Amino acid sequence: MKEVRARVVISGWVQGVCFRASTQQQAQKRHVKGWVRNLNSGQVEAVFQGGMLGVEGMIEWCRHGPSGARVSQIEIFWDQPLPSETRFNIL
Q1: Mean pLDDT throughout 54-74?
Q2: Based on the number of CB atoms within 10 Å of its own CB, is 66 exposed (0-12), middle (13-18) or buried (19 or more)?
Q3: Which residues pair with 48 in a beta bridge?
C-alpha cells in the first residue's frame, strides 16, 4: 500500500475541547500514523500518514472535529511519507 503524508493546521475554537485526544482516537480507528499538538497561536497542528483513504478521512474529520470544537479553517500541506512514523502520538 502506498502511503501519503499530510500536515494540517486547524483554526477556530480547537483548544480545550479534547481535539487532540479525539484526533488520536480517530486516527487509530483509520490506522493512520503521525501526531497532533496544540500551537501557541491557539491552532492545532497534525500530521497524518497512511493510506490515501485514511488520511483523507482524517482531513475531513478535522473540518468539524469533536463536538465542542468550532473549526473556522484548515490548511493542508502534502509531504513525502517518513519511514520513522510508526504510530499516532499526542505531542
Answers
A1: 97
A2: middle
A3: 6, 34
Domain residue limits, the chain: 4-80
DSSP per-residue string spanning the chain: ---EEEEEEEEEE-SSSSHHHHHHHHHHHTT-EEEEEE-TTS-EEEEEEE-HHHHHHHHHHHTT-STT-EEEEEEEEEE---TT--SEEE-
What architecture is the 4-80 domain classified under in CATH? Answer: 2-Layer Sandwich (3.30)
* Mean pLDDT, the chain, whole residue set: 96
Mode of pairing for the β-strands spanning 70-79 and 4-13: antiparallel
d(CA 3, CA 53): 10
The pLDDT score that the predictor gives to residue 85 is: 87
Q: So which residues are the catalytic ones? A: 20, 38
Cell 475554537 belongs to residue = 13
